[in-house]
Design brief:
The protein is 35% helix and 14% strand. The protein is α+β, with helices and mostly antiparallel strands. Strands 6-5-4-3-7 form a five-stranded antiparallel β-sheet, with no helix packed on it. The chain has a two-stranded antiparallel sheet with strand order 1-2. A hairpin with a 2-residue loop joins strand 1 (132-133) and strand 2. The chain starts with a helix and ends in a 6-residue tail after the last helix.
């Protein structure tokens, strides 16, 4: 009896299979490109090489190893991430799948920098004090363990030159003044109507009830991360970009 109930539960909770896939033709891919540019490029980049969303210009996608899995991701999104579902028809979803798969077949352009030298630039500029790679480093900024799988070279370069242009979700800068006059700045970790928690540059976590604070400001579009436009020469910047692009996490 329990076995039957367990099998029934599997049948009722397992996601339904994607609708039958139409033949992949040049017209279907072209339509998929148009849909991608209209609905996906804002986060994934016009060429699918990443930005706010993952880098899709890769032969293998971590969350979509098969076309059927990619259909489900495009159709339903990924819970707990910034990837939403959509209201496209099954055929339109397959058209997007067909176009996305072409992105992984485009040869990558070689980068001008040297990743090994970029690792030294990363260390010399104190990046590890704020960012984590493979569990090592600070927690003030985003984890960079797989930044190369999430973002393309152009987006990474722009993030280094102008960090405030696109502040990652979950890293809003906040400023607080306690009733005793202590001034604190950090990135927001959590907030509800009555309290706020934020982490400062020394990785110290602060938690306050809002009525304990004399002032609380949220700086939309601002980040404690400095820009490197005037801090690195062209060679060092190329090397740092090459190093960050090489960070693809575990496969």
């Amino acid at each position: 009896m329990w076995t039957a109930l367990w099998l029934l539960a599997l049948q009722t909770t397992a996601p339904p299979a994607p609708a039958a896939r139409p033949p992949v033709t040049a017209q279907e891919v072209a339509r998929g490109r148009a849909l991608f540019e209209a609905q996906c490029a804002y986060c994934h980049g016009a060429g699918g090489d990443g930005g706010r969303g993952a880098n899709l210009a890769r032969p293998a996608l971590r969350h979509a190893p098969t076309d059927e899995a990619l259909f489900r991701v495009v159709n339903r999104g990924i819970p707990g991430t910034g990837m939403p579902g959509n209201s496209m028809s099954a055929r339109e979803t397959w058209q997007v799948v067909a176009f996305v798969r072409t992105l992984g077949r485009v040869a990558r352009q070689p980068l001008p920098g040297d990743a090994a030298s970029g690792a030294r630039v990363y260390q010399a500029n104190g990046c590890a004090s704020c960012h984590t790679i493979q569990g090592r480093g600070g927690a003030f900024g985003p984890d960079l363990t797989d930044v190369g799988a999430r973002s393309g070279p152009a987006f990474i370069r722009e993030s280094l030159l102008d960090p405030g242009a696109d502040v990652p979700a979950g890293f809003m800068q906040v400023r607080a003044v306690t009733r005793e006059g202590q001034r604190l700045t950090g990135v927001r970790v959590n907030e509800d109507p009555f309290s706020i928690q934020f982490r400062d540059a020394k990785s110290v976590l602060h938690s306050f009830f809002k009525n304990e604070l004399a002032e609380l400001a949220k700086d939309e579009g601002k980040t404690p991360m400095p820009g490197y436009r005037d801090r690195l020469d062209a060679t060092a910047l190329d090397d740092l970009v090459a190093y960050l692009v090489s960070l693809e996490g575990s496969r």
